[in-house]
Design a protein that fits this description.
Layout lengths: L1 H132 L3 H15 L1 H43 E5 L5 H6 L4 H10 L2 E3 L6 E5 L3 H17 L4 H30 L6 H9 L4 E2 L2 E2 H19 L11
Antiparallel strand pairs: 1-3, 2-3, 4-5
Helix pairs in contact: 5-7, 6-7, 7-8
Amino acid sequence: MLVLAGVLALSIGACLGYFARQSIARKQADKIETTLQKRIAQVKKETDDMLLRAKEKAVQYIDKTKKDIAVQRQEIFKAEKLLLKRENILAEKTSALEEKEKDFGAKVERLKEIKTNIEETRQRVISELERASHLSKDQAKKELLLNLEAEYQKELMERIRKLEDEGRDKYEKKAKEILSLAIQKYGLSQAQEITTTTVNLPNEDIKGRIIGKEGRNIRVLEKLTGVEIIVDETPEVVVISGFDPIRRQIAKVSLEKLIEDGRIQPARIEEMVSKVESEIANQIKDSGEKAVYDAGIIGLDPKIIQLLGRLRFRTSYGQNVLLHSLEVCHLAAVLAAELGICGQKGGASA
């Protein structure tokens, strides 16, 4: 009985547990289904809202596009209208120009015809006058001039004198204007010539190498030579600016040799500038000695010879000062010889 009761209780417990489990599972399933339905409804609502907003944006975009198209069409219509108007104006002007050209051609032809008639009439009148006076054209002209000269000689002389005075005043004024204008223009170009020197470059890429990294090369070159180097947009040209012509010459020769050598760097720049300074110093000495020899001067102080050599690199009014000094020296010698002061070759005495 106890075993039977235990089996019966166990069966009843199992049944109750099964039904309880089924009930719990059913409740959980109902809860999950309810949650899913709510989620589905929410997603559907969100989807509907997104579709609605998308439709509204699409409608707005379509309206905006239509408005833009309408504006563009209106602008195109205005442009076409303006273009048509301009074409009509151009056609009218072309037609008027053609009419004027035809009228001008007709007037030219009439003028030619009138000129021909006048020339024929003139020849006919001359022939009649020659026949009536029994004189040729040249004879009549000569006779007329003689009569006029005899009759109006005094008036002609006064008129000629007046014209000469007026012409002299007029041409003197014009000459002064031309001279002042020429001096003004020449002075401007001379200021440019005596303060700048141009260096031609083989190509545009060399400008970057002359400037160097962060302007290092160009600063070293300017510091060593004492000039300003201008690298602008002018193609294949570098301008050296400075009031000292010798410094400009040193900078020019150094830059040309650096470009030819290809190694443009601070150490190489210092070496090249030092070398060129020595070369220029030798050139100055040679130029001074040659000038003294050409002038025929003996026993001149070496410092003065050095100063004369420096004149090779100076200009005055577009002329080299050293050459000009030699010309003045020889001219003074010739003048002294003409005056009997010294011989023609006595340049030092002159």
